[in-house]
Amino acid sequence: ISVTAHAQVLTVREQAKLVDQLLGERLNNVLPVLMERTGIDMWVIMSREYNEDPVLKTMLPAEWLSARRRTILVFYNNTQKKVYEKLAIARYDVGEHIKAAWDMQKFPNQWDALADLIRTRAPKNIAVNTSTDFGHADGLDQTDYYEFMQKLPVPYRTKVVSAESLAVA
User: Fold this and answer.
1) Mean of the pLDDT values across residues 20-32?
2) What pLDDT digit, counting tens, does each position of 87-101 carry?
3) Are the C-beta atoms of 42 and 73 separated by less than 8 Å?
4) pLDDT value of residue 4
5) What is the C-alpha to C-alpha distance for residues 129 and 163, in angstroms, rounded to an integer?
6) pTM of the model
7) What does the chain look like in DSSP terms, one character per residue?
8) Using CB atoms within 10 A of its CB, is residue 99 exposed (0-12), middle (13-18) or buried (19+)?
9) pLDDT, tens digit, 9 for 90 and up, residues 132-167
10) What distance in Å separates the CA atoms of residue 122 and residue 129, rounded to the nearest whole number?
C-alpha cells in the first residue's frame, strides 16, 4: 500500500515570516520565564560579524545571515518592577522584537552606551555566554569579554556571571 501526502511547501519569504513569528514567541514569552527561573536579571550577548555566538544566531531575524559588525543584545528582566526589555546596542532595531538603544550622539562608543544602559538598569547580575561544559553556551570571545570588562562600571564587574543555565534552557 502506498500513501501519497500532499504538502504545501512555503516560499522562502513565507518561511522567514514563520521563523520570525516563532522567534517573537521565544523572545516575548519564553525568555522572560527562563530568566526568572534561572535567576538572571540581565543577559548580555555580544558577537562580532563572522564570529557569531551560537546563541545569538538563534535570536536574529530570519533574513539576517550573521551579526552586523559588533552586535550586542541585552535582555533585562526586573520581576519586582514588572519590566522586561529586549534591546540592542545598535543603530537600528534587530528585527521587529529587539529595539535599538544606542544614542550615537550621546555615546559615540558602543561600549559606553552598553555601560550606561547597565548603570541605569542596575541589575543584580549580568550573565554572559561563558561555559566550561556546553560549547553552544560559550560564545563570548576573549576580545569582547576584555573590552566589556574594561568599560563595565567597577561596581558591576563582580556581578558578571555565566549565562550557561539560561543559554542551555
Assistant:
1) 96
2) 999 988 999 999 999
3) no
4) 56
5) 5
6) 0.91
7) -------PPPPHHHHHHHHHHHHHHIIIIIHHHHHHHHT-SEEEEEEETTB--HHHHTTS-TT--S--SEEEEEEEEETTTTEEEEEESSSS-BTTTBEE---TTT-SSHHHHHHHHHHHH--S-EEES--SS-GGG----HHHHHHHHHHS-GGGGGGEEE-HHHHH-
8) middle
9) 999 899 899 999 999 999 999 999 999 999 999 999
10) 19
Lookup: cell for 132: 566550561
- Of 68, 87, 75, nearest in space to 169 by CA: 75
pLDDT at 46 over 90: yes
Cell reading at 156: 558591576
Contact 38, 112 (CB under 8 A): no
